[in-house]
Amino acid sequence: MDFFEQLRRNVTQAGQTAVDKAKKAADILKVREQIRQDKREIRDITYRIGKTYIKLHQNDYEEEYEKYFTSLKAVKEALAEKEKELRRLNEHIRCTECGAEISASDDYCPKCGTAVAFDAKLKEEETIDTDGDGKTGQEECEEE
Ligand SMILES: [Zn+2]
Questions:
Q1: 112 Cα: distance to centroid of ligand 1 (angstroms)
Q2: How far, in Å, from the CA of 104 to the mean position of ligand 1?
Q3: Domains of the chain, residue spans
Q4: What is the pTM (predicted TM-score) of this model?
Q5: Residues with Cβ within 8 Å of residue 93, at least 6 apart in sequence
Q6: Does the pLDDT value for residue 132 go beyond 70?
Q7: CA–CA distance from 80 to each of 26, 67, 87, 105 (Å)?
Q8: For residue 125, how many C-alpha atoms fall within 13 Å in the half-sphere facing its CB?
Q9: CA 99: distance to chain centroid?
Q10: Distance from the CA of 101 to the center of ligand 1, in angstroms?
C-alpha cells in the first residue's frame, strides 16, 4: 500500500469514527430524555396517589401516615399565615400629598408621583383603609 492509499484510508476511518461518535451522542441524549420523562411520570403518578389517599383517608389514615398528615397540617397553617400577611401588606395606605390610595408596596404615588417614605408607610398602616374592595390603590386611581 502506497503512502497516499494509506492516507485516504486513515481519513475515511477518522470520518467514520466522527459519525459514530455523533450518533452515539445523539442516542445518549435521546435515552436521557426518555429517562427524564419516565421519572417525571413516576413523580406525577406518586403525587396523584398521595392526593387520592389524602382525599379518601384524611380522617382515618394508618399510623404510618401520621407524620405526613401532621406536617401537611403545619405547612398549611403556615401558608395561611403568610397569605394573611401578604393581604395585610397589600392593604391601602394614602399619599401624604394628594390623599390618593396607594399600595404599601408602591415606592411612589401612582397619581402624583410623590415618594412614599418608609416611616410614613408604617404610620399609615395603623390606619389601614378597610373598604375591602380588593383593589390596589393604583387600580382605583385609574378608575377616576
Ligand atoms: Zn399622591
A1: 4
A2: 13
A3: 91-143
A4: 0.50
A5: 101, 102, 103, 104, 116, 120, 121, 124, 125, 128, 129, 137
A6: no
A7: 48, 20, 11, 20
A8: 16
A9: 35
A10: 8
Q: pLDDT grade, residue 119 (50/70/90)?
A: low
CB atoms under 10 Å from CB of 93, counted, come to: 22
Q: How far is the CA of 123 from the centre of ligand 1 (A)?
A: 16
- Give me ligand 1 centre to Cα 127, in Å: 17
Cell numbers given for 132: 375591602
Mean pLDDT, residues 126-138 taken together = 47
Compute the distance from residue 121 Cα to the ligand 1 centre, in Å. 13
- The reported pLDDT for the residue numbered 4 is 81
CA of 6 to the centre of ligand 1 (A): 85
With pLDDT > 70 as the criterion, what percentage of the chain qualifies? 81
Distance 99 CA to ligand 1 centre (A): 6
54 contact partners, CB below 8 Å, separation of at least 6: 69, 72
Q: What is the pLDDT of residues 32-90, one digit of tens each?
A: 999 999 999 999 999 999 999 999 999 999 999 999 999 999 999 999 999 998 888 77
